[in-house]
What does this fold into?
Amino acid sequence: MNNPLQRILAPRSIAVVGASRDPGKRGNLAIRYLQQSQFQGAIYPIHPHETEVLGLTCYATVEVLPEAPDLALICTGAHTLPELIRRCGSKGIRGAVVLATGFSETGETGQALEQEMVRAARESGLRIIGPNTSGMFNTHCGANLVGYRDLRAGSVGLLSQSGNMALSLVTEGGQHAALGFSTYVGVGNEADVQFHEYLDYFAADPDTRVIVGYVEGLKQGRAFLQAAARVCLEKPLVIYKSGRCAVGQQAARSHTGALAGSYALAKGVMRQAGVVLAERADEILPMATTLAAIAERLPLKGKRVAILADGGGHATIAADALHQLGLSVPRLAEPTRERLKSLLPPAAAYNNPVDVAGGTDNHPQLFADCAEVLLGDDGIDALLIVGLFGGYALRFSEALAEDEQQCAERLVRLPNRFDKPLLLQSLYRPLKPEPLRYLEHGAIPLFSSIDEATRCLAAVVDYSEAKKRLSSPDQRGQGDPSVAVSEMIYKVLHSGRGSLYEHEALEALAAYGAEVVRPWLIRDEHGFGSLDAVALERRYVMKLVSRDILHKSDAGGVRLNLTPEDFPQAYHQILANALCYRPEARIEGVLLTPMAAPGVEVIIGVTRDPQYGPVMMFGLGGVFVEVLKDVVFRTLPLRLADALEMLEEIHGSKVLDGIRGGEPIDRQALVSLMLAVSDLCVNHPEISELDLNPVLARATDYCVLDARIILKPLQEAA
It folds into this structure.
């Protein structure tokens, strides 16, 4: 393992600064827990007036230690930290866990103290975990600096922005004999070491097979996403994101800006990076242990699941749940069905789901027989067993115990034999009968609830698909920025405007390959006379052009379905409406555009999120976008696979396939527009927000009906 945090998070020696002989002090508890955890390295108590603590020689200062420990646990108050960090750094100590509170979380004075402490650390290259942290542990070297009891070594790495949440997860994990943790870090204020840096450590840690994170907010969201995308190519990352309500969100000037900052944004960009998101707190560890158990068989070939049940009710519930989660329960191949018929009684269901119809009541090993047949079907990617297995000896006869145990032993071998995952739900799991304990120790994911089992299987599929996508070489190159667009933006900003006019926005899109209808700019009523009479054979839309009115419809600045005879009256009405709406508005003129053929209204937008940087939003558009909020987000630059996923991910995705006899939209055309928008916004960071709403998606093309591009203030764009 080669990671800069290795010697800090897997230390060979630890100094406890603030050691104490008082059993109630953290400086005493820390040493006791290190001893009880059989820490494999040297422990150096530091106290200016003690000579011995818990049988260990105590040193007055870190300067007099016989060596430079890898890590210092600092148990003293906040005011002592800057000087102690300087001393630790001068000694050559690599890292420090700072437990104290009283830093940036308390206000400006604490923020200044925190900054002073970090400056002291950076002068010597020492790294700080915390402050305001619950600590860290590494079970594989016995470095228990949190004080949790009875820690079980395992393969789950844990990061948490809440000490109580970490305690909850560790306590929950202790209830399952096959679950254990590798390393835990309470990240605290992240004054120095950031969340994403820990991800890289876990990716390199051979003792960690899956990473779990509890996240409230991210200081460096963009760096987190980049690290997550690297990590998820190697190991699953399960995140529970709290703070899902956009309370106190600042008002934005676009639909995209108004909807950004929500949980939907975090969910979208994390999913893009390969993160498995736990929607409920009680799903976190089940998802993690499921992914860890079958990591060697990832990614899966597909999302086709076979269900094996000993009752029709359980089978139906499982099939419904899988369908709702987007997984497939396909019809079995004919040879598979014939083999099942030869094994099961006539009343059994041989399609998918498979219901053994009492065939296992006296012969539990039929589960293993059927599982072999199902996993051997080339059209099946995973197997879910639901029902009573593990409890046959309890329910029917103790004479079935041996048969059931032999079945468990056979089931454990099947995933490796077929290179496909097997998950099992049993209503007897809370009773922990021996066959189920055997399965759990044999890395077969077990569940008491069908819903939990199906959600965890869906997480496996999500991660499998993300891993394939992340490893595909379809990242678009943005190429060089358009000189014409750069010059346009420069002129607009230096003219005092904060946004492009709509015709300028369309021109910018066209420069990046978007197919747009160029409107006529009419600066006064005499401009209508210069229009080509041949072109004026359709119906038209007239729109206000004003730097002071962004939302034209609100100001009565849009007229539809006009003929050339209507132009003068519509022009004067739009100007009158605008001046009534905002008397001081500066009016440039109006735009004239042909009425567009019908299509599905969608929205494509970009905003620059303070955590994650530039992000794109896609969803069903029009006037109801902020009511329905059926939108998804991805960070820029956008990949082809990202754009395609966005179209599938909205709840109303079926609308894009045509409804009531309508034709499906041209998805490739819409994706090309999304990629053009991505290129435009990546190459021109002066763009603060972009809204294309609505875009009419049609069977053979698309039409941008309204385009809005807002720029950063000149001082920020420079």
